[in-house]
Design brief:
Order of helices and strands: EHEHEHEHEHEHEH
Distance between the termini: 20 Å
Oligomer: single chain
Largest sheet: 7 strands, parallel
Number of helices: 7
Strand order of the largest sheet: 4-3-2-1-5-6-7
CATH topology: Rossmann fold
Number of strands: 7
CATH class: Alpha Beta
Radius of gyration: 15 Å
CATH architecture: 3-Layer(aba) Sandwich
Length: 188
């Protein structure tokens, strides 16, 4: 059986600064992750990540959330975060920055949808870990600024896919992941 890749969705928990069609875009990213045989990971938060988890569940996919809270009670009551679309929630107890690190490290690849500073943090973790990253361009916020941010410090050879269409974005990440797997097997 072929390994199911885990793709993290990092994005805006508050959608006010995102593209007008952000709800449709985020939901479709989740659907595509499930359709293309992958497991969705997110920060178990509101907004774009929750919409992606909803999309994955609509396609009978698997969704895993990494919560900043230490318990389900704190997740729901203190942080006021959703639980509806997750098969499993890992309660990290490490607040947002610790959760971001664990969630990103647990993923094989990361997709950035809109976002603010927290999403930029998730991006930089994935970038420094040299994970394949998909940027949903046209979604607003952080996602639409990353290409400019990387113009100066960008390292050659980094695997970043810039795409407007969720289907092509997920497919591009899977191509990179499969190439990496093939390359690592040939080195053995």
């Amino acid at each position: 059986m072929e390994k199911k890749y885990k793709i993290a969705v990092a994005g805006a928990s508050e959608l006010g600064h995102c593209a007008l069609n952000i709800k449709e875009l985020a939901t479709e990213v989740g659907r595509e992750i499930a359709r293309q045989g992958c497991i969705l990971i997110s920060g178990a938060t509101t907004g774009a990540p929750d919409l992606a988890a909803k999309g994955a569940k609509e396609e009978k996919g698997i969704s895993i959330g990494f919560s900043p809270a230490a318990s389900e009670t704190a997740h729901k009551n203190s942080y006021r975060l959703p639980t509806d679309y997750y098969d499993v929630i890992v309660y990290t107890g490490f607040d947002y920055s610790g959760r971001n690190l664990l969630m990103t490290r647990a993923a094989d690849a990361v997709i950035i949808i809109c976002g603010r500073t927290g999403t930029l943090n998730e991006f930089t973790i994935a970038f420094e870990d040299r994970k394949p990253i998909g940027i949903l361009i046209g979604s607003g916020g952080t996602a639409d600024k990353i290409e400019d941010i990387l113009r100066g410090p960008h390292r050659p050879g980094e695997k970043i896919v810039y795409e407007r269409e969720p289907k092509k974005l997920v497919a591009g990440l899977l191509k990179i992941l499969k190439e990496r797997k093939k390359s690592s097997k040939s080195k053995k």
